[in-house]
Write a structure and sequence with these properties.
Number of domains: 1
Radius of gyration: 18 Å
Number of helices: 11
Distance between the termini: 27 Å
Strand order of the largest sheet: 1-3-2
Helix content: 40-55%
Number of strands: 6
Shape: globular
Order of helices and strands: HEHEEHHHEHHEEHHHH
Strand content: 15-25%
Oligomer: single chain
Length: 233
């Protein structure tokens, strides 16, 4: 890890994601220690979470990276928590996570829930949707909020949808209001060129490629933790 420099601002962070290939925001090994290559562990001097500073607040970068870079994806990708994957490594994770299944094949096989299917079909129909629009269009009442959240995580972890921005609700008068909501789109619409590449990779070979890279970066990682980091379960 000594060869991997720490990030100190937005630009060095983006460079680091490209150099490493994938970066969880945080990830605990089975030993309880935090993985040595995470957004948290690689923060350098001057980094201040939730400060509102666009150059030194990693919380600001989850959307900024989507607006200003075309080679980094952000979503809940690692152990149901957020993280980043570069365009270069995206096909490798797609192969390992999807095992060559289309959405319909994954659903029929029982991998995906009925709620996930409902959410995915809404996003497919509209191209991109904010969480509040998914809730409204899908008729998800407040009591089903947790079910919707689980479905969104399920689809992100399986890499069928990804975060592509954020937007506010709009009033009847056409005025934006309230907190900005996360917007999701299909991963095919985000990194379309990655899918032909992913189908050329054997899923087990893809897993092994990621596994070897993790051990190169973090030799102390155990096999159970590695599996937890790579797979969506």
């Amino acid at each position: 890890m000594s060869s991997i420099s720490r990030y100190t601002d937005f630009d060095t962070f983006c460079t680091l994601v490209q150099a490493i290939g994938f970066l969880p925001v945080n990830f605990r090994l089975m030993s309880g220690d935090e993985l040595t290559f995470t957004v948290n562990t690689l923060a350098g001097d001057g980094i201040k979470w939730h400060s509102g500073d666009p150059e030194h607040d990693p919380w600001q970068w989850r959307i900024r990276v989507l607006q200003e870079r075309d080679n980094i994806a952000y979503a809940k990708l690692f152990d149901r928590k957020t993280g980043y994957i570069s365009r270069k490594w995206y096909p490798v994770f797609l192969s390992a996570r999807r095992s060559g299944f289309s959405f319909n094949e994954a659903y029929v096989s029982g991998i995906l829930s009925h709620t996930a299917k409902k959410v995915y079909e809404l996003i497919e129909q509209y191209g991109a949707l904010a969480v509040h629009d998914i809730r409204s269009l899908g008729n998800f009442p407040g009591k089903e909020k947790s079910k919707l959240e689980r479905a969104l995580i399920e689809l992100q972890m399986r890499m069928f949808i990804t975060v592509c921005g954020e937007t506010q609700k709009v009033s009847a008068a056409g005025e934006p209001y309230g907190w900005a909501g996360t917007v999701f789109c299909k991963t095919e619409d985000f990194f379309s060129e990655c899918f032909p590449l992913s189908t050329q990779l054997d899923p087990l070979d893809a897993y092994d490629t990621i596994r070897k890279h993790i051990l190169k970066l973090s030799p102390e990682a155990d096999e159970k933790s590695i599996k937890k980091l790579i797979y969506p379960i």
